[in-house]
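Recap from last week: sequence in, structure out.
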Amino acid sequence: MTPPTDKKSRLLVTREGVSYVLPFIVATCCFALWGFANDITNPMVKAFSKIFRMSVTDGTLVQVAFYGGYFCMALPAALFIRRHSFKSGIVMGLALYALGVLLFIPAKAIGSFAPFLVAYFILTCGLSFLETTANPYILLMGDRETATRRLNLAQSFNPIGSLAGMFVAMTFIQARLSPLDTAQRAVLDDAQFEALKQSDLGVLVQPYALLGGVLLVLLAVMLFVRMPAVHQAAREHHAPLLPAVKRLWANTPYRNGVVAQFFYVGAQITCWTFIIQYGTRVFMAEGMGEQAAEVLSQRYNIVAMVLFCLMRFVNVLLMKRFRPGRLLAVFAAVALLLLCGVILVGGRTGIYCLVAVSACMSLMFPTIYGIALGNVHEDTELGSAGLIMAILGGSLLPAVQAMIIDSGVQLLPAVNLSFVVPAVCFVVVMLYGLRHKG
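Predicted structure tokens:
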């Protein structure tokens, strides 16, 4: 980390006459970009399930492909950054991101589910590059004492992108898909089903194609932006890979942080993906049609993201007074209590509890990240890769929750009971916060 420039630790520094304000802004824009991708994708589990007449479990293959790309590309991205630069990592990330979203166009022409999964995988290989690059870059722009707070500030712009993704999903995809519900689609003959599928896929693909154009423009601009190097000496040292991995494995806060991040991301994605299924069940029980219930559920999801966004800024202020690990443990404990309401109470009260969980989650990703990387020194890039690989939790745990939903258990409504999965995740996060104060 950059040493303090004066007695008071500062969020950003100017070194050798170079200001980090513009690089901070550029890197922070990346947070919004992957937030958009994450939250235009979560509702697609339900959308693809309807369009291709699949089960909820099959629909979660979207999340498997999406977060699998994060896992597979994180280590190559870290090695790429070590060899080249943080700017090169951002450029590569934008290029892969643009390629992935533009592949939605030929996927629609093919008309099957698998090409969309390939497109999602390539898209998130780009996101993996962006996250592996931007998170440690932000951490290294100032004093070590303010690193976690600085990352929380940058991460505050992630939910702004997420809100935009949710709005696009709700307004330009979900509201424009055919109003035929799952049962009505099941009785269509092959010709009727194919025509309906192509129409719905056309609706779904259009926002992704427009996003691809925007990303190509951003990529062209990025090529001309100067991004000063940070932590250059460590990168030039090029420490051998195996000793670096051994050092990271021996670092207990880091090793436990990877585990905590796996479970946190799983909790986040399960809560945001299955709020649609949860809300749809509640509103249909009140007499609402399936499509109207889905749209209303997405509105609650947007409220949850607004709360998440606002709390990110509040957390930056809280960290001036309280240690990050302690805040992490408290927020995880409150989230666990709220999920008890989701599981046991249900109805509108359960939805309100599920929305409130987002306020607790707002602190978790950057705080775990900051604590875990707080003392890895020259292994920052590789350490970042491990934490990004932990995003695999967002791929695996929603599938577990979907299997509970599809199982039709009788003890409680299956959708309610499925939120046991994120509840277990928050226990792991709480224990991490209690053990590692940051």
